[in-house]
Amino acid sequence: MQEGLDDGPDFLSEEDRGPRAVNVDLQTDATLQVDISDALSERDKVKFTVHTKSTLPNFKQNEFSVVRQHEEFIWLHDSFVENEEYAGYIIPPAPPRPDFDASREKLQKLGEGEGSMTKEEFTKMKQELEAEYLAIFKKTVAMHEVFLCRVAAHPVLRKDLNFHVFLEYNQDLSVRGKNKKEKLEDFFKNVVKSADGVLVAGVKDVDDFFEHEKTFLLEYHNRVKDASAKSDRMIRSHKNAADDINRIASSLYTLGTQDSTDLCKLVKVSVAALQKIESRVAADEDLKLADLLKYYLRESQAAKDLLYRRSRALVDYENANKALDKARAKNRDVLQAETSQQLCCHKFEKISESAKQELIDFKTRRVAAFRKNLVELAELELKHAKVTMT
Amino acid sequence: NKVELPPPPECVCVKLSGPASLPAEDISTNSNGPKQDSLFDDDPEDLFAEATEEVSLDSPERDVLLSDGPSPAITPITPPCSLITPHIDMFTHCSFDEIEEEEGGDSFDMHISVSDPEKVGDGMNAYMAYKVSTKTSMSLFRSQDFSVKRRFSDFLGLHSKLASKYLHIGYIVPPAPEKSIVGMTKVKVGKEDQSSNEFVEKRRSALERYLMRTVKHPTLLKDPDVLQFLESSELPRAVSTQALSSAGILRMVNKAAEAVNKMTIKMNESDAWFEEKQQHFDNLDLQLRKLHASVESLVCHRRELSVNTALFAKSAAMLGNSEDHTALSRALSQLAEVEEKIDQLHQDQANADFYCFSELLGDYVRLITAVKGVFDHRMKTWQKWQDGQILLQKKREAEAKLQFNNKPEKLQQAKDEMRELEGKVQQGERDFELISKTIRKEVSRFEKERVKDFKTIIIKYLESLVQTQQKVKNIIIIIFSISY
């Protein structure tokens, strides 16, 4: 299986690069262009070759590449999240882990069941599985690339030092995945955060814009989650149906070799075509619709996080105000209270400013992406319908 | 193809299925070929004229080779290769057919429909009564258009009567639809829901197909039981078809015993035709079962798909509603929803067609079981004949011994017994010949019917596929124009 996978680079380089940045509509900016030029899949991990073209002065060269793994992407993302400076921005969501387990399982099952199928069935199923593997592979590369491009396009995040190290540092970043203890810590942090989020959400916002955004985002997030789950189920059914048609086609084929009437041949051909169409429709729907929804699920979560941080800052600000008033009343630690209040105020205002811009950008991006994908989906379906007609 | 084929023989017999007026092209050195051809071509009766004899071809290229003849359509059926050995019975076979075909001068014009399922009675004693309507112009029946009310056990009773009369002499009696305790109980209990309606509909169409298949068989059509079933208003209740009756259990025990017996009979097959046909049907059985399973699974998944599509459409609509910032966004979400709706329609349609296909496949799986049963009966007849012969041989030896020992009274008795036995053996041989003959005819009829049935349903499916695609295309075009 490794041999087949090492074909990865070939496929990617000759592949049409256009549809890769499916989910976001980004301006290509000459000062910093990042993409994933290559990817290699080894047993357990995927190695991405991150290629940067830049005219910025802080890079040593104008064009360079490094090899990165998934964990390093996660490290970069986490460093953004933990950085207080970026509290006011929507942090681009981290790319999902490359997950080849399902495919690998199927391949194993196929290998075990090799004896019970005819040669043609076996080769056909093997081809399909390989195509599926390739599709997952391409998807994961696309996700990672989108993440990098978003960071590169963001006016503030692109200047981050960690990002530059990520892009440029030739050696291994020796980032290890979180061990159990750290994962547990994360889990608790999340619990605390969500509890806090509930508390904070109760606070009514002074600014109408943000209040509106809050309700909108909450609702939107939930609905995107729902739509994403349903579309996954739909696509799974579609894939199952396509598998069935596959099996039917092969049975009809063996049946047809016994009864070689013209009609049987026609049936064979039409069923084969039908099957191809079905699986392609499923794959397309998957790409355009499901991925889109999943991506926006994560993005809306990130936007929610932003709003949460802002609300948190607001609460802190109000608490600081109250503390200041109390301090003034008691005439104790007034200076301290004042400075902390100043700090909170400053933080809050900074976040609010950038958040507003971010959210507006988010909306624009989202609308554009949805429009693009839905139109493409409709085009594809039309094309399929035409093909089936013939 | 998993089957290992022996190298192809040089001699090949091609039979064409085309209009009867075409000269049958016979390239073979087989002696019985021409006689059969001329016989079948004489007959204008559609039912009997087309006999598709098998061809021992193992690759499609040979189709092309052979089609260089004057005929437009060759439909060779390709079983695993074998020679068609000349068989003396073929001549008697032909003359038998001659008689049969003259009788069938009445054109086959009969249409049976099973309709109006109604629930009669209440609780666990309730049953569904179906209206069986017959429209025919055949002289066999008292009137041209009549109908009766029948229940499911009546159908089963008819089948068991026909099976007991005809299966052991080699006729392929179409199997009746299966009993379904779960399905019927739901109906009896009175649940008026989707699944019980579906069940009744499924059963109704299965019963209709069963009756049509039965009457299409020329011999079965003339059977008095069939006539009584179709015509008389009152039918004695067939109690022995109940699932839990003593007769039912007896049947099950018999079936098990027969299965064991079958394994022990080692038949010395002198006729290669039967051997290859047996293998052909075994293969066909396997493949049809596999196909049936796949199609059923497809029907199931398609249903799942339409349900999930509906759910997704709702979800997408809600998503669209929440995007109240941009009217365009909303329009797009609605677009997605409408598109899903069409998709669903499309699925439902395709589902319905595959469903018919699946039912047909199920019918054929059962039919092939019946065919195999007929072959088994032939084996049993042979066995009986052989047993008779062995017994006769023994008696002869005993007689010789008696003669040697000079015991006149016992000798006479032995001679009488021997005469009786000889008669039985001859009868056994005749039975065996008869059953072989009948089976040949039946099998060719069966193959023809099968091809016809499959053709019809596939054409229907393709037609409806084209129709739905056209509809979908139209709607998508409309959507497109809206979106721009």
Please explain how this structure is put together.
The complex is a heterodimer of chains A (390) and B (484). Chain A has 390 residues and is mainly alpha-helical. Chain A contains ten helices and three strands, in the order H-H-E-E-E-H-H-H-H-H-H-H-H. In chain A, strands 1-2-3 form a three-stranded antiparallel sheet. The two termini of chain A are 37 Å apart. In chain A, 34% of the residues are buried. By secondary structure, chain B is mainly alpha-helical. In chain B, helix 1 packs parallel to helix 4, helix 11 packs antiparallel against helix 12 and helix 12 packs antiparallel against helix 13. Chain B is elongated. The two termini of chain B are 51 Å apart. Chains A and B meet through helix 8, helix 9 and helix 10 of A and helix 11, helix 12 and helix 13 of B. Chain A: Belongs to the sorting nexin family. Chain A: It comes from Cyclopterus lumpus (Lumpsucker). Chain A: Keywords: Coiled coil, Protein transport, Transport. Chain A: Pfam families: PX (PF00787), Vps5 (PF09325). Chain A: This is Sorting nexin 6. Chain B: GO terms for molecular function: phosphatidylinositol binding.
